[in-house]
Every structure is written in structure tokens, then in C-alpha cells.
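#struct-help
A.M.: can someone run this one for me? Single chain, 257 residues.
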Amino acid sequence: MIQILSRMLLFFVILSFGCKDNSSQSPDLTTYTNKSYGGIGVTNEKVLVVRNTNGLVNIQGAASTDTITWYLFKSVQAETQVKGDEKFSFLKLSTQVVGDTLFVDVYSTVNESNLNCGVTLTIPSGLICKIEEAVGNVNVSDLDSVLIIENAPVVDLKRHNGSCQISGGTGNNSLELSLPENGYCRVNVNTGNILLKIPASVSASVYAKSLNGVVSQKGLTIAVDEQSSGFLSGKLGLGNGEIRLETNQGNIQIENL
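D.P.: on it. C-alpha cells below:
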């Protein structure tokens, strides 16, 4: 009898481990995408602040002085197209004007994973631009104004004709700019490489420091004051502007554009 009971108990143990609990399994998810666009009128605003807590930010300068065009690219995961359409409605773009500043926010109304929304803004090239709270990469091109970027994972800057300040990031930064007279390029990131490309005609003081990396320059005539493997200070031309590049972990390269 004891032997029979032992065999029955073993059978039920094996059975319980062999059965699948389908109620705890996640259903198959499909990725659905959605694109939309619109316009924002610009009147007396001088500063644009962009915040996107759900994806990347693309900024493109344009000749227009009175219009910002926005494009949203939404990507969600859901069991069906109907549920995907419902999730698209959770991703929003809103605007608010405070004084001379226009705020553009891209966000989700629910705290749910698998919701992504990238935003592209075509803006007047002379509008001062500040990008905050970007959880995705930041790409900026063809601006003629001051640019400020905070805490972006990766920054890619093309054909910039103004001052810029980048801080707090944790990824690589590639910057291509023509520094205006008395302008500045200030980059201070936690980790990541910094590549700065500037014309040889730029006039600026130069300070570049990496706590754990190499600082180098190529194709530029810098009057060097002090230099080591992880540090460079000196002057380009008359030193009218300011170039200050700092990273805790990564290499810094300054080269001729």
C-alpha cells in the first residue's frame, strides 16, 4: 500500500510540472506603426524647448520664420491592430507658450512599456533651441542659433552655425559646427566619445579633458599651452570664442572640417 501511494504521489508531481499554465503566458505581440504631422505657428516666440520621454528627437533648421512643422512616428506592440490603434492614442504631442518660450512635449498618457514615439521638428533656423528629457538619440542639423541639449544618450550635430552647450549625456557626441565670433561650444558628458569638427578659420580658446581617455587633434593649428594624453589647452587663431570639451570616460578628437 505504501509503495502504491508513493507511486501515485510521484505521478501527480510529474503531472503538475509537465502541465503549462497558459494563463500566465504573454500573448504574441505584433509591432504596429503610425505616422502623423502638423504645424505650429510662431509669432513672438524666441526660444523653443523640446521634451520627448518616449523616443528620439530630430531638429532641422529651415528658412521659414513663422512655422514649425512636426512629424510623429509612433511604434507600439499589441495583440491586434485594434489594440494597436488604441495604444497610438496614448502617445501625444502638446504645445504651450510661456512668455517668449514655446514648449513642445511628446509623452505617453499611460505608464506602459512597448510605446515609442520619435519626433521630427522643422523649425526656423534662428530660433534658440533647448532639448530636455530626451530618452532617445538627438539629431540636429542646419541651425543658426544657440543650441542647448541636456541628458541625451547620443548627439549628432550637422552644419551648425551657432553656439552650443551639451551636458549630462552617456553616449557618443559627433559635432560639426562653424563657431561664430565670440561664440562657444561647451560639452560636458558623463561617458562617451566627443568628436568635434570645425573649420580651420575658427578663433577660440581650446580646453579638452578626458579623465579616462585620449585627447587628440587633426588638421588644425592650435597654439598649445599644455598637453598630455588626456588633456589639451591652447588657442585657435585669436582665441575669441570658447571650445570646452570634457568627458569622464571616452576619447576627445578635434579636427578640421
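A.M.: thanks! Helices lie at 2-18, 81-88.
D.P.: also worth noting: The chain has two domains: 28-135, 154-257.
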